Amino acid sequence: MVKEKELQQKPPLPPIGQWVPAVALGWLIPGGGHFLLKRTGRGALLLASVTGMFLCGLMMQGAMFHPQQGDMLTTLINTGGWIGDLCSGVLYLLSVCFGYNQPDTAGHVHDYGTKFLVTAGLLNILAMVDAFEIAAGRKD
Amino acid sequence: MPKMNLSHFEAAILFAIFTSVVMGVVTKRTDRDRLHYGFYTFGCFVVALFGLGWLMYFGHG
């Protein structure tokens, strides 16, 4: 009974072709999904914010996470951090291609830098969800 | 790549600015609400920053 109600309230998933290009472009280029959907102003703000945060993280010499096996907490932190880094899209790919490999060193600036790099990716996930909602017609 | 050497306060304010912009853009439905929510989020960050700063100051003894 409860499940039936939940199913009735949930809007059906729109066709994949309707939202995948916006979400994929949004992952690759922060704000790209919004540009594709003609939300230029919001796309520009997202691009500036996510890119700004990522570049600040690089200039603070933050460390990039790499997936590691070990105890549960190590695996969770490193894999989660790597996924966060990866979600910055082309920013992450370019920095890896150009050989950015800062070791995790002590100091509050490096520590903030690491957090800035991960948070840039997490903010890009929010932007991708927003692009999905716009593309699916759930939001203006 | 130029290096940035910020204090805790400067780094936290920079973090709050970038995060507030994104939160404002993605959450609300009208531009007016987005602007309000962006400023509200930034205000919350600043209040939390000062609150936790004083908490740590007093907790440290």
Report on this model:
- The complex is a heterodimer of chains A (140) and B (61).
- Chain A is mainly alpha-helical and 140 residues long.
- Helices cover 69% and strands 0% of the residues of chain A.
- Chain A has seven helices and no strands.
- Chain B is mainly α and 61 residues long.
- In chain B, 82% of the residues lie in helices and 0% in strands.
- Chain B is built from two helices and no strands.
- Chain B has helices at residues 8-27, 31-60.
- The chains are: A mainly alpha (140), B mainly alpha (61).
- At the A-B interface, helix 4 and helix 7 of A face helix 1 of B.
Give structural attributes.
A: 140 residues, B: 61 residues, mainly alpha
Overview in brief:
The complex is a heterodimer of chains A (140) and B (61). Chain A is mainly alpha-helical.
Write down how many β-strands of chain A occur, each being a DSSP E stretch of 2 or more residues.
0
Distance between the termini of chain B: 40 Å
Structural shape of chain A: globular
Helical percentage of chain B: over 70%
| Biggest sheet record of chain B | none
Number of helices of chain A: 7
Total strands of chain B: the figure is 0
State the helicity of chain A in percent bands: 55-70%
- Work out the strand percent of chain B: under 5%
Helix/strand/pairing category of chain B: mainly alpha
Largest interface, C-beta within 8 A: A-B, 28 and 18 residues
